[in-house]
Amino acid sequence: MNICRTINQLTQAVNEFKQQNKTIGLVPTMGALHEGHKSLFERARKENDIFIASVFVNPVQFNNPEDLEKYPRSEEQDLQMLETCGCDAVFVPSAEEVYQGQEVETWHFGQLEQVMEGKQRPGHFSGVANIVSRLFKWIMPDRAYFGEKDFQQIAIIRDMVSQMQSPVEIVACPIYRESDGLAASSRNRRLSPQARLMAPKIHYILTKSFEQKDALSLSQIKSFVEHEFDKYKDFELEYFLLVDDKTLQPVRQRSVNQGIVGCLAVWLDGVRLIDIQRYW
Q1: Is the pLDDT of residue 12 over 90?
Q2: Is 218 a residue whose pLDDT tops 90?
Q3: pLDDT for residue 63 is more than 90
């Protein structure tokens, strides 16, 4: 596995792959890798000649300095997992290498970024676009893989690709869940043992609401989820929205054949967790 710490090392490795007409699958990560990441790696490995990953905690997508400071980092274990998963090259840069003193770009995504994560974390998606657009320019992958837990992020990345007029195919991959239903996340390791036992209630509540979807209106589904979280003093629900799966705009009444996804963010033990449930 080629460990690239500079842009020059990365582009040199990519050029060698391109000269051999190899297809490239990219999985951008912020490290602290887990089984959810592994499921993306395995798919990228299977569907492409070359599998490249990045490990970079991107400072410009954090609007909370404390969150950036606490974000888990485990480079040695990350590299071991990537090697085990058959990674051909991994980009592990410093922030100085990525941005090189250049002014950070401002990206705009219209209505897509005015709800949920975009509303709660101003500038977050512009920060995400800064690093992902750079990776796409340096690596020129055929496909890039993202987990559906970050449902809004996938819509943002697709819009970014359209703005760039880039040919990269964005592949959305199913959420990997632990055996108790908790969506895999690097943030899970920050939970206390007691909070970790409570965390699967997130998926349990969403599943319970899904099972009743045909008997409830959209507003009743929303009220049900909010009421369920109110039962548990450990949780602080930041938002739960039922949105159109294309526009991400809140939906009050479902149209025929319209895809609807429930997206939430919840605080538990000082850790902010997100999850989704597709209803239709």
Answers
A1: yes
A2: yes
A3: no
Active site residues: 37
pLDDT at 64 over 90: no
Q: How many angstroms separate the CA atoms of 104 and 126, rounded?
A: 9
> Within 13 Å of residue 65, how many CA atoms lie on the same side as its CB?
0
pLDDT at 62 over 90: yes
Q: Which two tokens stand for residue 35?
A: 């089984």
Domains for the chain: give ranges and CATH numbers: 2-173 (3.40.50.620), 186-275 (3.30.1300.10)
Q: Are 218 and 254 in contact (CB under 8 A)?
A: yes
Query: CA 34 to CA 176: how far, in whole Å?
Result: 10
Beta pairing, strands 260-268 & 2-4: unpaired
Q: Give the mean pLDDT of 224-248.
A: 98
